[in-house]
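Lab notebook, bench 4. We co-purified these components, and the gel suggests they stay together. Before we commit to crystallization screens, I want a quick structural picture of the whole thing.
Request: model the full complex, all chains together.
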Amino acid sequence: MDTKQAIVARTDIGMGTGKLAAQVAHASLSAYEDADERTRKAWKGSGQKKVVLKASSESGIFELADRAEREGLAHAVIRDAGHTQLDPGTVTCLGVGPGPEETVDRVTGDLPLY
Amino acid sequence: MDTKQAIVARTDIGMGTGKLAAQVAHASLSAYEDADERTRKAWKGSGQKKVVLKASSESGIFELADRAEREGLAHAVIRDAGHTQLDPGTVTCLGVGPGPEETVDRVTGDLPLY
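Here is the predicted assembly.
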């Protein structure tokens, strides 16, 4: 099984580069922990394939999370604690997968690379 | 125990923003998996505190990895598979921790925020 993880990050909230990277890492780990053992192993064994994609709004993130849920994919919506830069509770990212590459692409395949 | 993870990323190899975020996420997960169960739980339970820091060379990364090793901290050096942007095997990031905040700061505390 070819597996993949996609992390979708908002472009409309002015995150700096380091902030963005930390939020993406948070989404990656949280979605990973939502995946089943077999999928985790397949994904790690094949080098943790991962893409970072852009979404332009909070509603875009929720729509994708809903689609991931309906596809049965591991996923996690990340909110910032708000100590710096953002208001507390601001949605920053969505992690989708690891999961079968085709299924992940059905959810996030139309989004541009970050 | 206050716990923390630091991810150190190279600034001298011209990674784009999405590439950087993906490499940081890779380092975060790999170092996390190198930590013991108790530390993992403490870190997740307190919101996965995470900072992204800058290093300006490969030798800087290796020096920090050695210091993390000597402090007994979980850590992981990440190399890029090199399908895009970078030469295969290029060292991109180092994940340090999760571990006790003080110990992580002894290793990475002098580095600037990304």
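Chain B touches chain A through 24 residues (CB under 8 Å). Worth comparing against the SEC data before the next meeting. The radius of gyration of chain B is 13 Å.
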